Amino acid sequence: MKTRNSLYILILTVLLSSCDFSLDQNPITEKDGDKFYKTEVEIEEAVTGAYSMLRGNGLYGTNMPVLGEIPSDNTFDEVPANDGGNYGELDEFTTIPTNSVISSNWRESYRTIQRCNTVLNRITDIAFKNEEVKINRMGEMKFIRGLMYFNMVRLFGDVPLVITETTDVNDHFGQGRTDLNLIYEQIIIDLEEAIEELPVKGDMDGRVEKGAAQALLAKVYLTLDDKVNAKKYIDEVINSNQYQLLEKGEEVFTIANKGNAEVIFAAKFASGINGNVMGSQYYRMCSPSGHFAGGKGHNIPTQQLYNLYDDNDARKDQFVLPVETIYYVSGKMEAPACYGSK
Predict the structure, then answer these.
(1) CB neighbourhood size of 112 (10 A)
(2) Which of 66, 93, 73, 94 is closest to 297 using CA atoms?
(3) Is pLDDT above 90 for 50?
(4) What DSSP character marks residue 60?
(5) What's the distance, CA 262 to chain centroid?
(6) I need a labelling partner for 4 at 20 to 30 A (CA). Which of 18, 125, 138, 339 fits?
(7) Other Cβ atoms within 10 Å of 145 Cβ, number
(8) What is the pLDDT of residue 341?
């Protein structure tokens, strides 16, 4: 018995002594932030990660356009109870703090800002084969960060302003909201610097270009009722000769003509890829029930909006389309061919 017990003790000792090797391992399936962002390739991956946030449901996947329309007189919620009533609350002005449309937009906006801040913090010391590309990437991150804050300040007013990489969340516990005037100052700084750092024509479809920063800055100034500066940047976009207005509205928004000459910047989606996590569900969420397969009836154009268009207005029946039900649907969206419509 003593020999057997001694053997058990020996085995246990060996197992315990080997724990440091079997349990204390570096992550092999995830990026380790402390060891990442060391090369141009890794910085490019981080830049792509910031872009990828734009297609999240909390942002341009669904909720950003919804937040800008449902509370207005332009649209309404056909089925307010769908999706836990979160969209219906926006329509009926009964929004509560746990509303997922609000919380996801807030969360994904700050996650995007963190990714931009991280790139801007780490990129300075990284050598690029082409220094101009490095400068371009900095401009792209400043544009996206400025876009996030511009959206948030219009939705929420004063919000916490964070323009440095967060490496310890404890540093921001208890941080209050920043006066919206200071946030607008930072938005303008970001976009002015982006204009200087971005190329007129990007090196890849879908990347931010100078015209996008100029157009967004014009919109910022227009929001601030500074028409002089708004016109200045609008004129720069027009005079760049990089964009042009198309004759028909449907030519702008159809899937068959994406990336056309009227598009200044757009979040990129790809339906039917990677379990469709890269696609947008906006067409389904914001279509009358029964019009598209799985239509949820959120953000439906109102009769009042349709009536605002004169009969001779070329945009009528292009931007707001009558459908086979008693409702209308936005002409600015189209179901991917892999889904189809009823």
Answers:
(1) 24
(2) 66
(3) yes
(4) I
(5) 20
(6) 18
(7) 26
(8) 42
Yes or no: say if 50 and 115 are a contact pair by the CB < 8 Å rule.
Answer: yes
How far apart are the C-alpha atoms of 341 and 130, rounded to whole Å? Answer: 47
Both structure tokens of 60: 């341009």
Residue 324 per-residue DSSP state? S
Give the Å distances, CA to CA, from 245 to 248, 249, 262, 311, 332.
Answer: 9, 9, 5, 21, 15
Percent of residues in the chain assigned helix, strand, coil, to nearest 5? 50, 5, 45
Confidence class of residue 333 from pLDDT cuts 50, 70 and 90?
confident
DSSP codes joined into one string, 130-162: SHHHHHHHHHHHHHHHHHHHHHHHHHHSSB---
Tokens 């067409």 correspond to 283
The reported pLDDT for the residue numbered 288 is 87
CA distance 306 to 209: 34
Domain parsing of the chain, residue ranges: 36-243, 278-342
Distance CA 192, CA 179 (A): 20
Nearest alpha-carbon partner for 84 in 67, 69, 101: 101
Q: Within 10 Å of residue 297's Cβ, how many Cβ atoms?
A: 24
Query: Which positions ≥6 away from 208 have C-beta within 8 Å?
Result: 139, 140, 143, 144, 194, 198, 202, 265
* C-alpha to C-alpha distance for 221 and 209, rounded to whole angstroms: 19
Place of tokens 């990437």: 137
**285-295: pLDDT as tens digits:** 888 887 777 78
Q: What is the CATH number of domain 36-243?
A: 1.25.40.390
Interatomic CA distance for residues 134 and 122, integer angstroms? 11
Residue type at position 10: L
Distance CA 80, CA 174 (A): 35
**Sign of the torsion angle spanned by Cα atoms 335, 264, 220, 186:** positive
Residues in the chain: 342
Calculate the alpha carbon distances from 255 to 32, 90, 271, 305 in Å: 38, 29, 11, 24
